[in-house]
Specification:
By secondary structure, the chain is mainly α. It has a domain of 57 residues. Helix content is 49%, strand content 0%.
Length: 83
């Protein structure tokens, strides 16, 4: 009686244990975009108000000199035309 064996072709070490992270679902992406849009809208309304405040008041609120410069250089101050 003759017996032949054939190798299976892989070992337990060859099996990949890497898993890929699941993508967020439709509703998670939807609500994330909704939150981002609301934050952008809030910043668009708040920055012109902040730009009109004095430097001393902005420093009292915790803004640094660099933050104040960025706020001013982005032209968030609305032009006022006097006739």
């Amino acid at each position: 009686m003759a017996t032949t064996t054939t190798p299976v072709g892989f070992a337990a070490e060859d099996i990949s244990t890497e898993t890929t992270a699941a993508k967020p679902g439709f509703f998670a992406r939807f609500f994330q975009r909704l939150i981002e849009a609301r934050i952008a809208r809030a910043e668009a309304e708040v920055k012109p108000y902040l730009a009109r405040l004095s430097d001393d008041r902005l420093k009292d609120l915790g803004f640094t000199g660099g933050d104040i410069e960025k706020l001013r250089e982005k032209h968030y101050v609305q032009a006022v035309y006097w006739s």
